[in-house]
Amino acid sequence: MDQIITRFPPSPTGYLHVGGARTALFNWLYARNTGGKFILRIEDTDAVRSTRESVEAIFDALTWLEIDWDEGPFFQTRRYDLYREYIQKLVDSGHAYYCTCTPEEIDAMREKAMAVGAKPRYDGRCRERGLPCSENAVVRIKAPLAGTTVIEDVVKGPIVFQNSELDDFIIQRSDGSPTYNLAVAVDDITMGVNLVLRGDDHVNNTPKQMMIYKALGVPLPVYGHVPMVLGSDKTRLSKRHGAMSVSEFREMGILPDAMINYLVRLGWSYGDQEFFTRKELIEKFTLKNIGRSAGVFDQTKLLALNAEHIKAADPAELARLLMPFLARIGCEPTDMGQVEKAVKTLVTRSKTLVEMAEGARFYFTDIDAYDDKAVEKCFKEPAADILRRIIAALEPLAAFDEKNLEDAFKAVMEEMNLGFGKIANPVRVALSGKNVSPGMFEMMDVLGRDLCLDRLNKALSFVDALA
Ligand code: GLU
Q: Which of 43, 200, 213 is the best mutation target for the ligand 1 pocket, counting ligand atoms within 8 Å of the beta carbon and taking the most?
């Protein structure tokens, strides 16, 4: 079999949204699974709605998701000569023709069709007139007059269109610009795309594009139309369902691997497995497991999956991803080893990188104030005594390794005849500002000896002042 060549051709009229990202991902995964090629093409022919900012946002989002492309980005606006060449070929071979019908004539045709309950369509009046190219002429393709056009859809099964429903649609406007379907078909043909996998909002474009392939005498690609992503109310996902663009999820502290895991599961399954690493997805992705029913976007599930990915991630990689979130809250640690250690203490406590950064704040900034409830609960008698004894037990230690720390705590527990919890309470508040924190010894290891002693002494002064 030939090498699989897939593509993702977003229109840069906004941010990369969940549905588009899923389409990109499916195409990318299939290319990677089969050793094929994945092409990125920017469909920017709509000069009014396309923006450079959207193009950048799409690149950023794909890069964040680690969806890389083998060819491109191609821009349709730079390919007009090629489209013109193909339009000319179609005219020369008698598969397309110039049409000079005026807008009034077209409107009249529409009204006439609608009056008898038919679909508004062009009635083919210039089809056999053999008109030459002229200033206001458009170019129309000759649609088949009878029979059917069938999409052998790998996702939905065969989809049948009556050719009588398809009219001679325009492939070149009077200003010489190509229309959407012409540009897409020419691009897919010339880029060698042999799998067109896209949202099912494009189903109605497919017979038109197939017509162009047939007129050019080139083999059709394989088509697959993926159902749309829905919001919780089962309507098509849109802004009113909350976060929609991939960059918003990035800001929320979702990991790229969790995002692609969640996106893929919105329209593809592998038994009842929910958690997949990127490598596993590449290995396991097949077209036949793409679902026929629409996926429903559920942010709670995405967060739960993100928590799983945080637990499974490589701490060094997590530390790297966490840095911008730390910077956002004013923490700029320089020792990556320390950040990695901090991350390890927080992986089971964080659903997002935003939460993780918040949880790590006390490691990297001074504690300005102790939590009120924690003070009330943990800085009461005999907190001062505990802190004094813990400081005395810790001070002689050269290294704050787990064994040393455990011995120091044990000694104080015995001296005071108190359990670990009682001893740990004021120490925890002294070190973290709160009465909930990562495990005591791992937290002390991240803070290091000097900072621990400094914070314990400060807390002792605070507690003494309370008395
Ligand atoms: N540019 C189209 C879109 O953004 C994609 C067309 C296609 O996949 O053929 O929806």
A: 43
Which CA distances in Å does 270 have to 72, 110, 114, 252, 283? 31, 48, 47, 27, 11
Residue 235 has a pLDDT of 86
- Residue 217 has which token pair? 């005498």
Residue 37 falls in the annotated catalytic set: no
370-386 CB burial, b ≥16 within 10 A, e <16: bbeebbeebbeeebbbb
Residue 21 identity (one-letter amino acid): A
Amino acid letter, residue 118: A
Q: From the candidates 112, 119, 239, 373, give the one annotated as an active-site residue.
A: 239
Rounded mean pLDDT of 290-306? Answer: 95
Helix (H) or strand (E) holding 283: helix 278-284
**Secondary structure (DSSP) of 238-264:** -GGGS--BHHHHHHTT--HHHHHHHHH
Q: In Å, what is the CA distance from 378 to each residue of 15, 414, 428?
A: 49, 19, 9
What values do phi and psi take at 152, rounded to 5? -85, 85
Q: Which atom of ligand 1 is nearest to the CA of 10?
A: 4
Whole-number average pLDDT of the chain: 96
In this structure, what token pair is assigned to residue 423?
């001893």
Coil vs helix vs strand at 206? helix
Which residues have a Cβ under 8 Å from the Cβ of 318 and sit 6 or more positions away?
255, 310, 340, 343, 347, 353, 356
Residues framing ligand 1 (Cβ under 6 A): 9-11, 43, 184, 198, 202
Cα distance between residue 301 and residue 243, in whole Å:
14
pLDDT in tens, 429-454: 999 999 999 999 999 999 999 999 99
pTM attached to this predicted model:
0.93
Ligand 1 atom 6 nearest Cα: 9
